[in-house]
What does this fold into?
Amino acid sequence: MSQEQANKERPFWTAFNYLADVGSRRFGKIINNFGSAQKAWQAGDKDWRKLGLNKKIIDRFFILKKKIDPEKLLESLINSYQPSIWPIIKIDDYYPKNLLNIDDAPPVLYARGKIAQQLSQGKSKSWQSFWSSPVLAFVGTRKPSAYGRQIASRLGEELARSGLIIVSGLAYGIDTLAHRSALEADGKTVAVLGSGVDVVYPSSNNLLYREILESGLVFSELPPGTRPLPGHFPARNRIISGLASAVLVIEGGLRSGSLITASLAANQGRDVLAVPGSITSQLSSGTNYLIRNGAKLVTEANDVLEEFDLALQVDKQQIGLTEDERLVINLLSSQNLTADEIGLRSKFEASRVGVILTKLEIKGLVVNLGLGKWGRR
It folds into this structure.
C-alpha cells in the first residue's frame, strides 16, 4: 500500500483505535474481511454480522460510531496539542521497522514530539534521521540502589553519546535515569507510556517529559487521554522491547517487570543483556538470574556496543555530520542513487544535493560510481 493510501486510511484506523472493544487481533480480522478500515467503518449492520463477532460488540460499535467523526478526530489530535499528536499506523512507510516485525505490533502508535509533529506536516526528513541509529531498550527497577543509579547514569550517558537510541518507559527509577542521562549526553531517547501520550505518569516526571518532546519521542498505543492502569504496563513493555534490537536490564528482582520485559524481548528475537550485582542484593537477583540463563554480562559500555558492531561503525562515521548529510548517507546505505533520485527522496534542491555529495566525497564517505550513480564507500 502506498503512503498516499495510508494517509487516506489514517482517520479510520485512529477511530477504530478509540473503540475499546477493537483490539489489535480483532482489528486485523476486520481489515482482512473488509479490505480497509474506511470500508469497514462505512459498512452496514448486515455486513458486520457476517464477521461472527459477538452481537453486543457489534451493537456497541454502531452506537459509538455515531459519536466519532474520523476526520475531525484526526484534526483534533493535530491541532489541539502542542506539539501535535500524530497517529502512526501499521501501513505507514515510516512505522518503526523493528516494531513492525513483532507478532502483536500495535495497529496505531500515537507519537508526540517535535519530530513527530513534522510527520503531520508531511515532512519525514527528521524522522528518518532520528531512526538511522541502532536502538537499545533500557529497563530496571523503579527503586534502584545507589549502585543501580550509578550504573544506569553512566551507561545511559556513554551509550547515548556513542549514538544509540535509548528507549525506556518514563517510570520512576532506572527509566528516569536512562532518559535523563541520554538527554544530558545530547543523545536520542524515546519514552513509551502505559497511558495516553498526553498523560504524564508519574506526574513528577513532567519536566523530563517536556524535555523529551523537544528532541526525542513519546509513544503509546493507547488513545490520548487514557489514564495509566496496571493492566496497561505489561502490554507497554512489549513495545519497549519491540522497538529495540537489544534490551539491557540494569537492576531488578526475580519477579520484577524488568524480567517480564526481558522475556518478551527473548521471545521477539531480541538480545538480552544484564548488569551483574551482589549475590546478597535482592535487586540484583533478577539480573544475575538472566546472566546465568544466557543473557550477555555487561560491565561497561563497550560490552553493549559490541552488540551493535556493524550499525555502530556506520554511526561512528557519521559523527560530526550535519542532519542533511546524515540523511543522504542513510539514503545511500540501502542502494546506489543518482543525484536526481537523492533530491526526489530528500526533497532537497539539485544544487543542495550537489554540495552535500561533494562534502561527503571529500570526507571519504561516498563515491561517484559513474553514469550519475553515487554509493557508500
Remarks:
- The chain has a mean pLDDT of 91.
